[in-house]
Amino acid sequence: MEERYFFTVEDDISADEAVEAIRELQEEVDRLENITKARKELLQEATERKTAPLKEELDSLEIQLKEYFKTLKTKDTKTQRKYILPSGDLLEKKQEPEFERDNDKLLKWAKANNKKYYTTKETPAWAIIKDDLEFKKGLAVHKETGEVVDSVTVKEREPKFIIKY
After folding, report:
1. b/e map 100-112, b = 16+ CB within 10 Å
2. Which residue of 13, 24, 43, 87 has the lowest C-beta tally within 10 Å?
3. Phi and psi, residue 76, nearest 5°
4. Closest CA to 153 of 144, 136, 140, 142
5. How far apart, in whole angstroms, are the C-alpha atoms of residue 117 and residue 17?
6. Cα 5 to Cα 20: distance, rounded to the nearest angstrom
């Protein structure tokens, strides 16, 4: 990678130059990423143009095989039907049904019928708890009682450095 800026930030002038350099570098990064994005889109479009007729042919052959499969005497099990050919097998697998649920109505029904049909999840009300705590020297202390809440660990973090341009 070519390094383009050689200076040390020592005062407001060099700091301002650094901000300008960051702006220019970010513009170059954005330009290159935009070129790549445009190229990807062009490649994707070209791929779709080339593969569309192939996919149509695949679909047509699969439909024909499925129709032919319906006419065959197959080897059947509880979960599938199978027909063996030299180049591969034709399979029809039974699937579990899909279930569409209205969870609000289902929960109401479950509560009315049996406690084992639903769960109650309890979680701490952190926003409320946090308002009642003070944080000192890495400890969480209840404001009213002075109790140290040992289930809360305070990890101080470095300030986040932001450059706006």
Report:
1. eeeeeeeeeeeee
2. 87
3. -110, 140
4. 140
5. 66
6. 11
